[in-house]
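Aim 2, interim progress. The first record below pairs a target sequence with its structure tokens.
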Amino acid sequence: MGRFAPSPTGPLHFGSLVAALASWLDARAAGGRWLLRMEDLDRPREQPGAADAILRQLDTLGLTWDGSVLYQSTRAARYRAALEQLTRAGQTYPCGCSRREIADSALGIDGAHVYPGTCRDGLPPGKPARATRVRTTAEPIRFVDRIQGECLQSVEREVGDFVVLRADGLFAYQLAVVVDDADQRITDVVRGADLLDSTARQILLQRQLGFPTPRYAHIPVAVNAAGEKLSKQTGAVPIDGAHAATALARALLFLGHPPPVDLPPDDLLPWALAHWDIGHVPRVRALPAPQQP
């Protein structure tokens, strides 16, 4: 069981297309199902109409999904239940620290500041709770990524106790994605390598909540000429449905599966399914996006 979980902050661009295509191919080539989830928890960042635009783009590209689309914005009660389970087990604590107050701590594996544990043993006098953090442990998390290979991370040392309920009242991505993957019975997560450093945190939460851990495969992130991840913020161009075959061919090339140059457009996806081999995906964390013809 695979899934694609875009955030509706804008339409699909090349970077999100390669993630969608890789996860679709990996699920379909194995005879599995492919689910679609909208990660629309962060409403201030959501672009009106983006979710529907993404659905139309996927349909035009031929990347059909199974079942109904799951919207995270409808799942608050489920996330709250998971948070309460963690709290009953003593795995969380309230935190009163602002970002400014932890700005002097060391930088972690993903460039964010490692939380120094200020509120771990209780809120300092006069400091109100702002967020909720999960307790990490010194035991390293080890997993084998199907593309990137063996990974090892000490969440306590390299990230620190991390937020599961934000100061603005929104459930954090790390908690939501773990609950959703478990509830949807996802067995294989194929996504961009920008999320590789989040995986150990998610495995930790899975263990604390008693959830199974899926297999992970992190494809290279597509970057522009300046080395920046393709995104709405870096001016990534939306996928044009009128040139769907060209976009798919570029994505396959990026994923290490260059299609024959004379292949008819309608045969692209059947060819890709017949030839999909995740071992051909480049074992790097970032790659320049192929130039548009």
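The second target in this work package is listed in the same format:
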Amino acid sequence: MTKINHELPHSGKYQITVGELLVSAQSKLRPISDSPLLDSQILMTAVTNRDREWLIAHREHQLDKDITDSFESLLERRLIGEPMAYIRGSQEFWKHTFVVGPEVLIPRPETELLVEILLEHLEPDQQQILDLGTGSGAIAISLAAERSAWFVRGIDINEAAIDLARRNSEGLNNIELRVGNWCDGISTNSIDAIVSNPPYVRENDPHLRDLSFEPIEALTSGIDGLSAVRSIISDAYRCLKPSGLLLIEHGYDQQKEVLNLFQHSGFLKIQTFNDLNNTPRAVLGYRP
């Protein structure tokens, strides 16, 4: 059996082909990625400015050395565990592509549930919406884009995150993104709905090892992971109008505790939600 050489030749006149480079990359990525083929193709599209269909149709196309060098540089970043979203600088969420970087949490597909719930539970006419811990602005921007009559405020304590969110919000005139700490500066009884995907990972959670490239302050919140949730629920009660809605994302094993916090704070008509994987994911309640 012929042994494949995964070292990339750079000397002489030989130019490696698209197919050869992808095979080599897949082999290296297999131990650390659940999708080595897709990862390698995405890296290749980034350095060639071609789409995946072109790569498949042109596997014999020979690549210049500067292309292979750029590809190897991106590949090395992936091999040490850097998320693909940071390497390519973007992430899909809801109906949009968001610019992301290490200053913000990467938007997750399960968080789209929050957008879906609010669109279903609120009237499409004028609403004052508050997104706490907005990060890249994924939730706030998705809501503002869906409902032109809503005015959406996104708040984050991280100035770099707000700068990035503002880039993502270009073209929308019904959104405000600013630096702040939860509901500080928000008038009493002024908001129709508050939504948040706050930090909720426990400080000693072993899964943090797999999230080392993402900002720790956007992930963890106290020993039990619920410090931010407690602050938000307390602040939200003051800021919401009577019958205003609060919706919070939580961890897979935190729904009972978050439900209790809603109840003890006086919220009514409380509902719980599972994500598409049937994992407990969010709690909703209404201010009296």
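Residues 1-11 have pLDDT under 50 and may be disordered. This observation will shape the mutagenesis plan for the next reporting period.
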